[in-house]
Amino acid sequence: MNLVVLAWLASSTAVFMAANSVLKIYAQKGGLWVLVAALALFCLGNTLMVQVMRANGLGLALALSVIFQLVAVMAVAMVFFGERPSALQWAGVCLGVVAVAMIAWPQGGQG
Protein backbone atom coordinates (compact mmCIF):
# COMPACT_ATOMS: atom_id res chain seq x y z
CA MET A 1 0.00 0.00 0.00
CA ASN A 2 1.42 3.37 -0.97
CA LEU A 3 0.94 6.76 0.67
CA VAL A 4 -1.73 7.85 -1.81
CA VAL A 5 -3.91 4.84 -1.01
CA LEU A 6 -3.29 5.40 2.70
CA ALA A 7 -4.48 9.00 2.25
CA TRP A 8 -7.66 7.78 0.51
CA LEU A 9 -8.24 5.38 3.41
CA ALA A 10 -7.66 8.04 6.05
CA SER A 11 -9.96 10.44 4.19
CA SER A 12 -12.75 7.91 3.92
CA THR A 13 -12.40 7.08 7.62
CA ALA A 14 -12.69 10.76 8.53
CA VAL A 15 -15.77 11.15 6.34
CA PHE A 16 -17.38 8.02 7.79
CA MET A 17 -16.73 9.30 11.32
CA ALA A 18 -18.38 12.62 10.39
CA ALA A 19 -21.31 10.77 8.82
CA ASN A 20 -21.84 8.67 11.93
CA SER A 21 -21.64 11.75 14.14
CA VAL A 22 -24.28 13.52 12.05
CA LEU A 23 -26.40 10.36 12.11
CA LYS A 24 -26.20 10.37 15.92
CA ILE A 25 -27.52 13.94 15.90
CA TYR A 26 -30.37 12.79 13.65
CA ALA A 27 -31.15 9.92 16.02
CA GLN A 28 -31.32 12.31 18.97
CA LYS A 29 -33.02 15.33 17.42
CA GLY A 30 -34.45 14.25 14.08
CA GLY A 31 -34.70 16.56 11.10
CA LEU A 32 -34.87 15.56 7.46
CA TRP A 33 -31.93 17.76 6.46
CA VAL A 34 -29.73 16.18 9.13
CA LEU A 35 -30.55 12.75 7.72
CA VAL A 36 -29.86 13.94 4.17
CA ALA A 37 -26.49 15.35 5.31
CA ALA A 38 -25.56 12.04 6.95
CA LEU A 39 -26.52 10.07 3.84
CA ALA A 40 -24.53 12.47 1.63
CA LEU A 41 -21.47 11.97 3.84
CA PHE A 42 -21.87 8.18 3.68
CA CYS A 43 -22.00 8.41 -0.13
CA LEU A 44 -18.83 10.53 -0.14
CA GLY A 45 -17.09 8.06 2.19
CA ASN A 46 -18.00 5.15 -0.09
CA THR A 47 -16.79 7.08 -3.12
CA LEU A 48 -13.43 7.57 -1.42
CA MET A 49 -13.33 3.86 -0.50
CA VAL A 50 -13.65 2.94 -4.18
CA GLN A 51 -10.13 4.30 -4.68
CA VAL A 52 -8.83 2.02 -1.94
CA MET A 53 -10.69 -0.94 -3.47
CA ARG A 54 -9.20 -0.23 -6.89
CA ALA A 55 -5.70 -0.30 -5.46
CA ASN A 56 -6.04 -3.24 -3.06
CA GLY A 57 -9.15 -5.23 -3.89
CA LEU A 58 -12.38 -5.51 -1.93
CA GLY A 59 -11.25 -7.83 0.86
CA LEU A 60 -8.16 -5.89 1.87
CA ALA A 61 -9.86 -2.51 1.45
CA LEU A 62 -12.72 -3.46 3.76
CA ALA A 63 -10.42 -5.09 6.32
CA LEU A 64 -8.32 -1.93 6.42
CA SER A 65 -11.40 0.27 6.61
CA VAL A 66 -12.89 -1.70 9.48
CA ILE A 67 -9.74 -1.52 11.60
CA PHE A 68 -9.18 2.17 10.81
CA GLN A 69 -12.75 2.93 11.83
CA LEU A 70 -12.48 0.76 14.96
CA VAL A 71 -9.44 2.69 16.15
CA ALA A 72 -11.04 6.03 15.22
CA VAL A 73 -14.28 5.19 17.06
CA MET A 74 -12.34 4.16 20.15
CA ALA A 75 -10.38 7.42 20.06
CA VAL A 76 -13.56 9.50 19.72
CA ALA A 77 -15.26 7.54 22.51
CA MET A 78 -12.30 8.08 24.81
CA VAL A 79 -11.68 11.76 24.00
CA PHE A 80 -15.23 13.06 23.66
CA PHE A 81 -17.31 10.67 25.76
CA GLY A 82 -14.86 9.71 28.50
CA GLU A 83 -15.12 5.98 27.81
CA ARG A 84 -12.27 3.77 28.99
CA PRO A 85 -11.82 0.39 27.30
CA SER A 86 -11.03 -2.60 29.52
CA ALA A 87 -7.81 -4.57 29.16
CA LEU A 88 -9.70 -7.26 27.27
CA GLN A 89 -11.09 -4.68 24.83
CA TRP A 90 -7.60 -3.24 24.29
CA ALA A 91 -6.35 -6.77 23.62
CA GLY A 92 -9.12 -7.24 21.05
CA VAL A 93 -8.19 -4.03 19.26
CA CYS A 94 -4.52 -5.01 19.26
CA LEU A 95 -5.37 -8.43 17.84
CA GLY A 96 -7.50 -6.77 15.16
CA VAL A 97 -4.64 -4.47 14.19
CA VAL A 98 -2.22 -7.41 14.04
CA ALA A 99 -4.69 -9.49 12.00
CA VAL A 100 -5.19 -6.74 9.42
CA ALA A 101 -1.45 -6.07 9.30
CA MET A 102 -0.94 -9.75 8.48
CA ILE A 103 -3.58 -9.54 5.76
CA ALA A 104 -2.05 -6.38 4.30
CA TRP A 105 1.58 -7.54 4.54
CA PRO A 106 3.11 -7.86 1.09
CA GLN A 107 3.85 -11.43 0.03
CA GLY A 108 6.98 -12.09 -1.97
CA GLY A 109 7.02 -9.99 -5.14
CA GLN A 110 3.37 -9.04 -4.78
CA GLY A 111 2.44 -5.67 -3.36
Helix content: over 70%
What class would the helix/strand composition place it in?
mainly alpha
The N- to C-terminal Cα distance equals 7 Å
Helix segment tally: 4
- Give the total of domains: 1
H/E order of the elements? HHHH
Query: Could you tell me the radius of gyration in angstroms?
Result: 16 Å
Largest sheet: none
Spans of at least 5 consecutive residues whose pLDDT stays below 50 are none
Which shape, going by the Cα principal axes?
flat
Mean pLDDT: 87
Number of strands: 0
What fraction strand?
A: under 5%
Written overview of the protein:
This protein has 4 helices and no strands. It is an all-alpha fold. The chain has one domain. Helix 1 crosses helix 3 and helix 3 runs antiparallel to helix 4. The mean pLDDT is 87.
Reconstruct the topology from this structure.
Layout (H helix, E strand, L loop, with lengths): L2 H27 L2 H25 L1 H24 L5 H18 L7
Helix pairs in contact: 1-2, 1-3, 2-3, 3-4
